[in-house]
Amino acid sequence: MSQTAEIQPGGVGTQAFGPRDAARLVARTTAVDAVGLEERAASLGKRSIKRESKLWALDLAIRCTDLTTLEGADTAGKVVAMCAKAVRPNPIDPSIPSVAAVCLYPELVPVALGQLKGTGVRVASVAGGFPSGLGPLDARLREVREVVEMGAHEVDIVLNRSLFLAGRYAQAFEELRAAREAAEGVHLKVILEVGELGSYDRVRQASVLAMAAGADFIKTSTGKLSTGATLPSALCMMEAARDFSRETGRPVGIKVAGGIRRSKQAVQYLVLLYETLGPEWMTPERFRIGASSLLNDVLMQIDKERTGRYQGPDYFTID
Amino acid sequence: MSAPERVPVKRTAKLFIGGEFPRSESGRAYEVLSHDGRLLAWAARASRKDLRDAVRAARDAQPGWAGRTPYNRGQILYRVAELMEGRRAQFEAELADAGAPDPRRGVDAAIDRWVWYAGWCDKVHQVLGGTNPVAAPYFNFTIPEPTGVVGIVAPPDQALLGLVSRLAPAIVSGNTAVVIASEPSPLPAVSLAEVLATSDVPGGVVNVLTGFTRELVPWLAGHMDVNAVDVTGVPDDLMPEVEALAAENMKRLHRAPDVDPFSPQAQSPYEITALCEMKTVWHPIGA
Questions:
Q1: CATH code at A271?
Q2: I need a surface site. Which of A29, A83, A127, B224 has the fewest CB within 10 A?
Q3: How many CB atoms lie within 10 A of CB A257?
Q4: To the nearest whole angstrom, how far is the Cα of B137 from the nearest Cα of chain A?
Q5: Distance from the Cα of residue A213 to its chain's centroid
Q6: By residue range, what is the domain housing residue A197?
Q7: Domains, chain B, with CATH or none
Q8: ipTM associated with this complex
């Protein structure tokens, strides 16, 4: 696999656009061919990945996972257990790599940081009024600054869909830019919540807006809606990221999240990624899968590929 | 001039997985012949992935099925028998094609057996569970609980009665089942699946695969998410392999008693508990 330069938080090109460009950027976004997009996503999703390639893809899927818990009922104990799983997904099999990061609420960031010190697993926190992003702006920005001060390596914020869908692009852009500044030095992921955007045109426009505002990653969903990531919406975002990177020279990562529970889905997203953004994106630096129950399914699939026997959840840790 | 002869519209014999009737994902099918060599149908030849899908459907359906009240499970299973009665002509024709000497008797026995086991739903706990005398201040009792997902390799002969005699006791207690139908005569099993789909049995509680027994059995026996296998239809020479595979996750293996399937000895509540886990609870009692 080729070496990929790490995305520098808020790197080259982020200052190239100002709020006054926002409306222009959105307006000049080309319309998305919905039928073609869905057909391409469906055909790539059918690609058969077998044996060594499948094992490689499953290994990569684990390395790209943001192991997530975003429940009101999260406790320090649950986070400790999840961190252990993040470092050694299968305690009896050291050949299984660690996940990329854990993703949780700000309150639990110190717990995760303590557990993951020295392991290489990063800590991502949602912030900025997750999941709606409709709290007072100063409170949202303060939340971002606080998680950065706590030491989180990555921050997942949400696009203000209310502003975006009302056509107030400049204001939505400014909010994202303010969050970008608040999240200085850390990876900023911007959640578009594609399930609320209504059309692929909107998905593409929101992607462009977020990337221009300085997002290091654009992320499909919060995981709080019944519609999470879908193959066509992820493809739409990948195409936007590809074009943005060609235009500005700045690579932007993709994070898919919401409803990804099976290995097969993870592999499908990897196929889309490979075919759209190429091998340089096949790394946790530039691609993430936000998931919780996916990890066990991947572990079961790996065991199935190795032993030839279908596995059952009784033999894997409950998370 | 005579009217053109009508071409009959024949049924496609498909799999039954999660309440749906898919073809095999492999696209394969095999010829089903009558006892005298007529082509009856092409039945789906299930693949490893069909088996995986069936186990997944059974696993997903299991907590819901076991969580229903025994009374409710019993009512649902009675209804299956009612609908079997309505399909009697079809079952009889299929048994005649399979070479059964007395198809009517076979269908009668299958329906009666289904009803007999349905009645056990709300009785098995008090008859086969119980309180145990212990030498300490504990109230000690044992109850049968479903073991989980049960694989059933139906006997190749007695395509209907043999299947019902294995399937009914398995699901009475709250297990869900993945059935591998009789390879030479799968059509009664396909018809039974159609009955189950139109009764109130939730999708996934019974999944029926048609295909090659020797091909499917090792995948079933090796599947780590199957808790027990009824090996009545497994050929003897395959048993050592099945036992070795089943040992990996300590599946229960169970075989029908070797008696005339029409006799009363062929039905027993112990066929239900053979696929149950007996749970014993020690409950402290105060002075």
A1: 3.20.20.70
A2: A29
A3: 25
A4: 34
A5: 17
A6: 24-307
A7: 39-284 (3.40.605.10)
A8: 0.80
